[in-house]
Amino acid sequence: MSVITNYADLQSQVIVLSHRSDLAARLPLFIEIAEREIFRELSIRGVEATSTGSTSGATIAKPADMDALQRIEIEAHGA
């Protein structure tokens, strides 16, 4: 097996190992689903991020690229 150094290599190796070149067009979706499952299982600290924001009424907008919430801290200021 060759070393996978980029996304194109990953796609190529998936096709080779699966013996399913007919699924090449669906590989991006397959890889995305696999990444989500791996990240969910591993809970890698390196993929966590911190975000701050202000409330709008009784809601706080979540970051657009957020997959899952680990923890939330709320500080109340004012009246």
Summarize this structure as a short list of keywords or feature phrases.
single chain, 2 helices, mainly alpha, 5% strand, 35% helix, two-stranded antiparallel sheet, 79 residues
What does this structure look like?
- The protein is mainly alpha-helical and 79 residues long.
- It is built from 2 helices and 2 strands, in the order H-H-E-E.
- It has a two-stranded antiparallel sheet.
- The longest helix is centred in the middle third of the chain and has 16 residues, at 27-42.
- The protein is elongated.
- The model has no long low-confidence stretch (mean pLDDT 82).
How would you sum up this structure in a few lines?
By secondary structure, the chain is mostly helical.
Q: Which consecutive residue ranges, at least 5 long each, have pLDDT under 50?
A: none
Tally of DSSP β-strands = 2
The coarse silhouette is: elongated
Helices and strands, in order, run as: HHEE
| Radius of gyration, in angstroms, nearest whole number | 19 Å
Portion of residues in beta strands equals 5-15%
Largest sheet: 2 strands, antiparallel
